[in-house]
Design brief:
The complex is a heterodimer. Chain A has 15 helices and 14 strands. Chain A is of the alpha/beta class. In chain B, a hairpin with a 4-residue loop joins strand 4 and strand 5. Chain B has a 4-stranded mixed β-sheet. The chains are: A alpha/beta, B alpha/beta. At the A-B interface, strand 1, helix 1, strand 3, strand 4 and strand 5 of A face helix 1, strand 1, helix 2, helix 3 and helix 7 of B.
């Protein structure tokens, strides 16, 4: 008899099989993922996500018969009142009567949805696949946080620039005392004594014997001094550094969107996907990500997420009001020195013609200096928009030439969202 | 016997397990006379238990999405608290592997050692079905071979191609057993050798010239249909076997994969046929062993109460009208009740028992009687032979007649003198695998002609195949066969054709 403790064995035996399920039901899972995105809020998305897929994708058929007509007999337990010859009404549902002998199992399985939880990585994988992100970008998103060196005690080797002088000297002193290295005053005392005796000798007194002894002693002391160095390689101490994850800072993400009547539902959906991507990206980078939603028509206000995406407004479009709101909120709650500020604006490009100039100057003067990145996406509804230049596009274009922080893109389909991201990630990757 | 406790409280460690095992072994082997395979006891976590579930209790399997699906199903229902995990899983192998959950109490560990490592183990080793259909000493090596082989097929021919064959073969796994022939013992060496030879032969006879040879006309025979059916050994109910040997389009490795699925299906073939007996045997053994441990002072009263509580939970039989009940019997409940009843008949028979079971009533050898029953029966014959009126009364059994031409159901037998035999016969029938598995056979194929595969489903009592599963399965057969497949459903008594289906091979 053997008793074996299998608990330390590698876990996750079924990881591969699990991935095959997802691969097999890829289309269904991707559809469910998209539904989850549409239904969920930005904060929830990307956490471990439960998805339900129709189970016929994963159905395993076999030959099995069903009782449809004729006679059969079933033995049951728990008879309390029946006598032979009693008649019972058929239980509701199921033409086959109460005692189905497993005939229903195959059908039941086919009808129920199949529900399981995707891990965050699986979810992102499916999500980004939809957006046609190259693998390069995926790996950057899932990369670990930045590292920074911090002091981690003392070591006996290192580069000369890292020498810790105070420690080194303390070591050498201890060694000198331990090895009884003669001190300089002792040497000077001996030398002056010898000098005095030599002077006396010149005066005529016979101190040759004493002088010889002192000279011998001096020689000994000097030799000892030369043997035991002032600083020895073993005394050297260096400051040691270790790489630790950079303490993650806070980030705030401002979502600004034009909600005037010209923005259709599908445009808002595109915008939502873009905001979602940005949020997922920021969450990878920063431990804490705040969200601020500013919607605007002719006036701007801060709203909650649900209102932001679902509550339609009518009216004109004055972009600068949103910028003013941005500046007000940022100054009040998110000082630049303790927050990483990201801003994303989604619009169909319309703006009141006299406002564009003011919006530009606010963007350049007050917003771009405080943000890490400002992304503008124009959700285009028609080809006319794509060819022609909208008010905002015309205004932003020269600015984005001067200002690398400003990224702008037009988006007509979900897959167009990606180039904006490449720009964003590309710059981050280049920076040290 | 000394009266020292094996353990106290609920905590256990490996020396507790060892002590419990040795005490249980003394009772099981010396007092009860059980014969078991050498035991291997493995302690696992709940996550590992989910893995074990996924593979139907096989310690290792090849990779396939269906296992991932099962894993996700079990995991989801476990995480949401719909189901709890089993205390143990035991594998019919030599050595017999029992998985124990780490979260069990000391008492539960002792109980499941008695249940699995001795009860189930004895049954696996001695029951004729398992002896005939499974080869406990070869299964672990064979699974390892299967895993490696299918893995190498995935490397050589691609995951998609391998999966296509596996999917189709899985759909037919219930039709991969030679029900009448018994099983040839698995032999890994021979299997590997045969696989190698098959490939070498293919390589040797390959000659591109044959492609260019004009094909002559077939010589007509006097009774071509009868002749070719005789040559192919038709009708054949082992669909996987027939396809493996005869399919005109399969590659050698595809045949080997089909063979793997077929042999593994065969290994599992006895399990559902002896479920009541197997669980009844294990439950009876653990209850007896734990009672003896308590009587000899090796476990304390608290532990024994836990045993009673646990056994009572396991052998609960909800009535037909109970929300948790429904059709069918809890195999633990029925099995344990029948085992205990046999013991009672042997030791303290009533007049009724003497009339019903003259052979065993009062023979004062309950252990010998039980061991004989465990070795020589399966559920169907066991119920037919040993279900006593006392047990029928205990379960308050009754029989319903379900006639679709009648608006109501008729109670045509209850647990009284007039009904005992009728109930026993019907209950035994419900454990007959022939009533569950569809009887599908290959009846004809013209290999020299259009190669259409003809199948026949011989129905019982107007039970047609469930749709759309039948068509989907037929499509899988067509995938393996490579040509059109047609199936007729005929009434087994009148030979009237009730329905017909057909499927072509997937277009490339």
């Amino acid at each position: 008899m053997d008793i074996i403790d299998r608990r330390p064995n590698p876990h996750g035996k079924n990881l591969e099989n699990r991935q095959r399920v997802i691969a097999r039901a890829r289309a269904a899972v991707a559809r469910a993922t998209r539904a989850a995105i549409d239904g969920g809020t930005l904060r929830e998305i990307g956490r471990d996500q439960a998805v339900t897929i129709p189970s016929d994708t994963l159905h395993e058929p076999s030959f099995h018969s069903v009782f449809s007509k004729g006679q059969r007999q079933v033995v049951l337990s728990g008879n309390k009142v029946f006598s032979t010859g009693d008649r019972l009404a058929r239980p509701p549902g199921g033409s086959g009567g109460g005692g189905g002998d497993g005939s229903g199992s195959g059908d039941g399985e086919a009808q129920d949805g199949f529900r399981f939880v995707l891990t965050r990585d699986e979810f992102l994988d499916l999500f980004f696949e939809d957006l046609e992100l190259p693998d390069l970008v995926k790996s950057q998103i899932v990369a670990t946080e930045a590292m920074t060196p911090i002091r981690a005690g003392i070591s006996v080797d290192g580069s000369p620039s890292q020498i810790d002088m105070a420690r080194t000297m303390r070591q050498s002193m201890a060694r000198r005392i331990g090895l009884r290295r003669p001190k300089t005053p002792d040497v000077t005392a001996l030398e002056s004594e010898i000098e005095r005796l030599e002077a006396e000798a010149r005066d005529g007194s016979d101190r040759a014997e004493q002088l010889a002894a002192l000279r011998g002693e001096l020689e000994l002391v000097l030799r000892r001094m030369a043997r035991v160095p002032w600083i020895d390689p073993v005394d050297l101490r260096y400051r040691r550094y270790t790489q630790v994850p950079k303490p993650t800072a806070r980030a705030v993400m401002f979502c600004m969107m034009d909600v005037s009547g010209s923005m259709s539902e599908s445009m808002k959906d595109l915008a939502k996907r873009f905001f979602l991507l940005l949020h997922v990206f920021l969450e990878r980078r920063y431990k804490r990500v705040e969200l601020v939603f500013i919607r605007h028509t002719e006036t701007a206000e801060e709203v909650d997420e649900n209102t932001f995406f679902t509550d339609p407004r009518t009216g004109g479009t004055v972009v600068s009001t949103a910028f003013a709101e941005f500046v007000r909120i940022q100054r009040a709650r998110f000082p630049q020195d303790s927050w990483n500020i990201y801003a994303a604006q989604a619009s169909d490009g319309d703006n009141s013609s006299m406002d564009t100039r003011q919006a530009m100057s606010m963007l350049e003067g007050q917003i771009l200096p405080v943000v890490q990145h400002f992304a503008y996406i124009e959700v285009a509804a028609s080809a006319a928009h794509i060819r022609g230049e909208s008010d905002l596009w015309r205004g932003y274009a020269p600015l984005s030439q001067r200002e690398p922080k400003l990224a702008m893109r037009r988006v007509a389909e979900p897959k167009d969202i990606f180039p904006v991201f490449r720009e964003l990630f590309g710059r981050k990757a280049a920076a040290p | 016997m000394d009266s020292q406790l094996l353990y106290a409280g609920t905590d256990w460690d490996f020396s507790t397990l060892r002590r419990s095992y040795q005490a249980i072994e003394r009772i099981a082997c010396d007092e009860l006379g059980l014969e078991v395979y050498p035991n291997r006891i493995e302690v696992i976590t709940s996550e590992q238990m989910l893995d074990v579930y996924t593979a139907h209790g096989m310690p290792l399997t090849y990779r396939h999405w269906s296992y991932g699906k099962r894993f996700l199903q079990h995991e989801t229902s476990y995480r949401r608290g719909y189901t709890s995990l089993a205390y143990e899983v035991v594998i019919n192998s030599n050595p017999c592997i029992s998985y124990l959950m780490e979260g069990n109490t000391a008492t539960m560990q002792a109980l499941v050692i008695a249940h699995a490592a001795f009860g189930h183990n004895h049954f696996f080793r001695n029951n004729h079905l398992f002896q005939q259909w499974t080869d406990a000493s070869a299964i672990l090596d064979y699974l390892e071979f299967a895993r490696t082989y299918i893995g190498s097929c995935e490397d050589k021919y691609g995951v998609a191609a391998t999966e296509r064959v596996l999917d189709a073969a899985h759909a037919l796994s219930r039709h991969g057993v030679n029900r009448h022939g018994g099983a040839r013992p698995l032999n890994l060496k021979i299997d590997q050798k045969r696989e190698r030879e098959r490939r070498e032969y293919d390589e040797k006879i390959f000659d591109d010239l044959w492609r260019t040879v004009p094909v002559g006309k077939a010589v007509p025979e006097s009774d071509p249909v009868g002749e070719r059916r005789r040559k192919l050994g038709l009708p054949e109910e082992n669909l996987l076997y027939f396809i493996e040997k005869t399919s005109p389009k399969l590659q050698f490795w595809e045949r080997e994969i089909i063979r793997i699925v077929r042999l593994i299906a065969q290994y599992f073939y006895p399990q559902p046929q002896a479920k009541v007996m197997n669980e009844g045997c294990a439950t009876w053994v653990h209850q007896r062993v734990m009672t003896r441990l308590h009587e000899t002072g090796q476990i304390d009263d608290a532990a024994f109460l836990e045993v009673l509580h646990s056994t009572a939970n396991v052998i609960m039989q909800p009535g037909f009208d109970h929300p948790a009940g429904g059709p069918g019997f809890n195999p633990y409940a029925l099995g344990y009740a029948m085992m205990s009843d046999i013991e009672r008949i042997c030791t303290a028979p009533t007049a009724e028992d003497r009339e019903w079971f003259p052979d065993i009533a009062g023979n004062r050898d309950p252990l010998g009687t039980l061991r004989y029953a465990w070795a020589n029966f399966r559920d169907e014959s066991f119920v037919l032979q040993y279900l006593s009126p006392a047990v029928m009364r205990q379960f308050k059994m009754f029989r319903l007649l379900d006639d679709t031409s009648d608006k109501e159901l008729l109670v045509d037998a209850i647990h009284d003198d007039a009904g005992y035999r009728a109930i026993r016969r019907t209950l035994a029938q419900s454990y007959d695998p022939a009533t569950h598995d569809a009887d599908v056979q290959v009846v004809d194929v013209d290999l020299a002609g259009d190669r259409k595969l003809m199948l026949q489903h011989r129905t019982r009592a107007g039970q047609l195949l469930a749709q759309p599963d039948a068509d989907l399965t037929l499509k899988h057969i067509a995938t393996l066969w490579g040509y059109e497949v047609r199936m007729q459903e005929v009434d087994a008594e009148t030979e009237a054709v009730l329905a017909s289906h057909s499927a072509g091979p997937p277009s490339k």
